[in-house]
Every structure is written in structure tokens, then in C-alpha cells.
Amino acid sequence: MDRINQQILHHFSRNGRISNLELADRVGLSPSACLRRVQELERSGIIRGYRAVLDHTRMGVGFVAYATVGLREFTKASQEAFERAMDRAPEVLECHNITGSVEYLLRIEVADMAAYKAFHTDVIGTLPQVNAITTYVVIGSSKDARA
Questions:
Q1: pLDDT tens for residues 69-113?
Q2: Three-class SS of residue 85?
Q3: How far apart, in whole angstroms, are the C-alpha atoms of residue 10 and residue 25?
Q4: Contacts of 29 (CB under 8 A, 6+ apart)
């Protein structure tokens, strides 16, 4: 990973739709050399894909929370069952298996508090693997670099 590849990744992380011509100009390469590097970064799996950054507020999402989830048993079967349930839940944008006193950290986005309560009660609360849930409501975000 040399300095030019780092610059390419920096520009892509800020604007995944940047044209090859503009990217090449910004990193000081010819367009063909820049394209070869981008294709190699894609082939090697360093660039795994491209995404749109969505304005969730305009999509009706006004409530964001992080929730920690503790499981009753820390077994492979219990983890897999919980992760499958979270994969099926469109409200869960992120599900991380973490270290510490609980097993999971979730990022949950829904319309409002009533929608979160329904999700908490009807989805997470019904899973037999779940032992404990702690919710942290986001009241503002001064930095969010996720794409």
C-alpha cells in the first residue's frame, strides 16, 4: 500500500462517484495508470464495493439508537441464531459481536420512539437467546464518517 493507493482510497472514501479523470488528476497519475490501480484495489478486495450515502431523515428515519445485547448462553448456536435474526431485521443497520460484558452492539434506525419500542418488544424481546438489552439513544452526531 503506497502513498498513491492511500490517496486513491482517501478520495474514494469521500466521493465514490469521482470520475477516473478527476481522480487521476488529484493523485498525479495518467488516467490509464489510475484506472489500473483502482481495478487492482478492487481485485484484491481492498475496495469491496460502492455505496450511496442516504439521508435517513428524508426517508422517515428520525430515531437512531445503539443497543447492547447480552445472550443467555455464549454458544456458537446461540450466536448464529441471534445473528440470523438481526440479518432479517431491516431496522438493524449494524450488528457487531464485541468483547466485554455483553456480546453484541447494534445500530438501530427507525421512524420514532414508538417504532423503536415495537422493535425492542416484538423483535429483540422475543428472541430466546437474549438475556439483556441496554439502549443508548443518539441525540446528535458531530461526526459520522460511515458511507
A1: 999 998 999 999 999 999 999 999 999 999 999 999 999 999 999
A2: helix
A3: 14
A4: 4, 37
Q: Which CATH architecture has domain 3-43?
A: Orthogonal Bundle (1.10)
Kindly provide the residue ranges of all beta strands, DSSP E only, lying in 33-139, ordered along the sequence: 63-71, 92-97, 104-110, 130-137
Distance of CA 137 to the CA centre of its chain: 17
Read off the pTM: 0.78
What DSSP assignment string belongs to 10-33? HHHHH-TT--HHHHHHHHT--HHH
Q: What distance in Å separates the CA atoms of residue 122 and residue 119, rounded to the nearest whole number? A: 5
The domain limits of the chain are: 3-43, 63-137
Question: Could you identify the residue written with the cell 468483547?
Answer: 99
